[in-house]
Amino acid sequence: MAKCVALRADIDTVKDAEVLPVLLAILDEYELKATFFVTTGKDNLAKNLKNYRNPLI
């Protein structure tokens, strides 16, 4: 049976981006595939967080 692992890495700053070569080297070493989602533009997460409501509460 195949195993699935999920990893999320938030790269928010230039300093964070310095980790990318290390992450890519690890993926390459273990022959792992990855999908990267890249967003552009202003980050409005904190502004929109007040509008979030958890339907389970």
- Counting H and I runs of at least 4 residues, what is the number of helices? 3
Hey, roughly how much beta strand do the residues contain?
under 5%
What is the succession of H and E elements?
HHH
Backbone shape = flat
Biggest sheet features = none
Assign a percent range to the helix content: 25-40%
Category by helix and strand content: mainly alpha
- Average pLDDT, all residues: 79
User: How many β-strand stretches?
Assistant: 0
Q: Any overview of this molecule?
A:
The chain has 57 residues and is mainly alpha-helical. It has a domain at 14-49. The protein contains 3 helices and no strands. It has helices spanning 14-17, 20-29, 45-49. The model has no long low-confidence stretch (mean pLDDT 79).
Please describe the topology of this protein.
Elements: H1 14-17, H2 20-29, H3 45-49
Task: Provide a quick synopsis of the model.
This protein is mainly α. It has helices spanning 14-17, 20-29, 45-49.
Question: Which terms summarize this structure?
Answer:
mainly alpha, 0% strand, 57 residues, 3 helices
